[in-house]
Amino acid sequence: MTSVKEFRVADAATENRLGAGRFVFTDAYSVFDWGKMPDQIPGKGASLCLMGAANFERLEAAGIPTHYRGVETDTGIAPLESAGSPPTEMAIDLAQVPELPYAGSTYDYDTYHGATGDNYLIPLEIVFRNSVPIGSSLRRRRSPGDVGLDEDEWPESRVDLPEPVIEFSTKYEQQDRYLDRETAARVAGAADLEVLTDLAREVNRVVSEAATEAGFSHEDGKIECLYHDGTVKVADVVGTFDENRFGYDGQEVSKEVLRQHYKREHSEWVNAVADAKRQIEHRDTADWRPLCDITPMSLSPDAIEIAADLYTAGANTYTNRDWFDAPSIDNAVEATQQLWSRLPPETETWIISVSLADFSFAGGSRTMQLNIFSRGTTVLAHCSRVCTGGPSRLPRNVTAE
Fold first, then answer.
1. How do strand 231-235 and strand 124-132 relate by DSSP bridges?
2. How many Å apart are CA 363 and CA 373, to the nearest integer?
3. What is the pTM for the complete model shown?
4. Fewer C-beta within 10 Å: the chain N or C terminus?
5. Percent of the chain beyond pLDDT 70?
6. CA distances from 395 to 217, 282, 340 (A)
7. Residue 11, CB-side half-sphere exposure with 13 Å CA sphere
8. Looking at residue 344, what is its pLDDT?
9. CA dihedral defined by 258, 262, 263, 264, rounded to 10 degrees?
10. What average pLDDT score do residues 306-327 get?
């Protein structure tokens, strides 16, 4: 089904009846739509299964219908609380998923829906945003006023939204496309767009409340849904560090950490991926990967260990149960910040190094060593040292081009 989850069918769905199957969560990861990356992150699959199951059970308790049926335990399929160790398999209802034809640079959704009857996986991702970080595509597509902000220009910092923003993007196309509501309604088929919007808001509310209780901020995420006999159910997986973006004490604790790591350590590959995606827009093929002449590098052993600790410590904290022998979330976050504080490779020219004393922020102050240097045509700001009377926290790198 995906590059990081295996999909097993026990009973195939029909036009009129839901089927039964399982997700098997692996330790593989994917960034920038590449597919399976070179490494495995120990504990990642179980972490995602735990968080997904916990969120599905919260949704069911709130009266929100889902395709979730339980996790694999020593005694069979059961609620998460019955598991004696971190599960990696999740039992689910299945809907039909026909092929989405592609020809002449367009996707044929009419044929997709013609093959499904009243039982299908809706080929949309319904995205919800509670905040807008620097670099978000929302800044390119919409103005601050469009999302309820009293600003003429986007602030040069992460901004919280007064109300969650709901958007629709494609699910099965080789490159995700954000859609206007008219196009999204056509892609959704028989499923009502207002129902999908309301469902996304409710899921966002439930996950945000759970995140706040565990000490996280919930920045954005998405849901996928199935349609069966007039009913819409939440499908796929909800509220994990891969599907959603969470923060803890100002640090990303989601897959965004891996994205940013590759931007920093292997920017040539990230740029090649972006170039290939641009090239495919003018070709009669949907697969951009053959146009990318660079493959991603492996993560370093310490980066793998830090990522594994972040996933497992985060899952322990989010579910309020010590499933893994992992460091505390505070220590895992600090290790992540220290990894980011190291000088990027291939540094060419130092420009200036300055000390910023008593740098103020919410909750205290810091003395920070700020090093400005260049790599080729890129100028970067790197925070190399923090001294404080309180707990040590290294700020994230800031990169400007």
1. unpaired
2. 29
3. 0.83
4. C
5. 82
6. 17, 41, 9
7. 7
8. 52
9. 100
10. 97
